[in-house]
Amino acid sequence: MKKVYLETFGCQMNVSDSERVATSLQSKGFEITTQQESADIVLINTCSVREKAEHKLYTRVGEVRNAAGRKPFVGVMGCVAQLDGETLFQKIAGVDFVVGTRAVGRVSQAIEHVLEHQDTYIDLGERDIDYEWSVAENQRHSPYVAFVPIIEGCNKFCTYCIVPFSRGREVSLSASEIVRQVLEYRRQGVKEIHLIGQNVNSYRPKTESGLEEFAGRTPFSRLLRAVAATGIERIKFTTSFPRDFHADIVDAINEHPNLCNWVHLPVQSGSSDVLRRMRRGHTVESYFKKVDALKDSARDIALTTDIIVGFPGETEKDFLDTVAMVDRCGFDSAYIFKYSPRPGTPAFAMKDDVTPAEKTRRFRELEAVQKRVQRKRLERYRGKKVEVLAERVSARNPDDLAGHSTCHKLVNFPASKRLLGNIVNVRIVDIKSNTLYGEIC
Ligand code: SAH
Ligand code: SF4
Ligand code: F3S
Question: Where in the chain is CATH 3.40.50.12160?
């Protein structure tokens, strides 16, 4: 039995693709191994969103090639594979096959080809119409949490972003297929599902199938109601695109306790001028309105975001506006990135005029502000009871379990392993910089 070692970089979409690739390879008689040294095939699922992410591929292929012992075949899938295609064979010595983002259903054909012909192979084709979206129980990243893709690709073309090029146009899965998967996961004992997509709230399926009985202003809010009706314990969804984030999403959250109280709404900048040049389709003011609607909810909805510092032309004033915006919004957490020019995107043609040192300064300053804001935000949980899904034994302390709250905070608490997979009530007794600590109550 040939052994495949699969390594994944990038976002949840890549994690989810890898889970399905592993499922399909396993069903075709391959063994998925966690030991690279014993693998016949090393498969790397790549990310291209920033230059650093892309470089990981070069480093990893080098390491695999230079490792002692057997020489596995090396396959590249994911966003770098889709973008670089054929040129990867020249760019990186030792790549044997390349599989694009929509060709992931045919990885086994690629492997069989290289094993049989000892020759390179490339597939950048489209998805098969009978593509299997399900993931086997033993290939999910967690026994209790499952990712369910609802929309893939992106039509937004923010000027800095490579994703529309690597993932293609938006395609939504039918609600009936999504609900079928959720019901199957529920039967398997999954407690929490994440509806995933580059922009989940741009969900627009070709047919009404599965949505017929569910009202709402947008297909996405109708889908939320349809998934809530499955009775699965918890539903989270990410990422939401601010321009398409309407009040009916908050209404759906207010109506259904199993729709979790967490929204990830990437703002990118606190300067409307920068946002315009990023072509985000929202202004700082329109973003504030959405945030206020979220904060007006009777439920305490946690808000997280992504921010880019050092976009071309970002002035000190623009940056200070971003600092003020962070203060005003009170994010529960924020991923902050330094702008990284991506060849092929519109912003690549703009002058990358914020120096690396200045990007680092802005990054550090904003990080410090966010830390302060976050600390204050997290304090509101002290003494409060939160519901936590006991997902795993804590990496730090074998006597503690770790899991997420409905508001997607990582919570550690002392408890027996017997509670794994259960949703437990935890009273928060301590606040760490990014996590909460509590006791079962
Ligand atoms: N679809 C999501 C995000 C996908 S990429 C959305 O629209 O919000 C995840 C994050 O990476 C983005 O939110 C952005 O903050 C960051 N990012 C994307 N391209 C980048 C680039 N060229 N340089 C730095 N950060 C980038
Ligand atoms: Fe990239 Fe913008 Fe699409 Fe998000 S919405 S994936 S940032 S182009
Ligand atoms: Fe990276 Fe591709 Fe996701 S570029 S962030 S793996 S869509």
Answer: 3-123
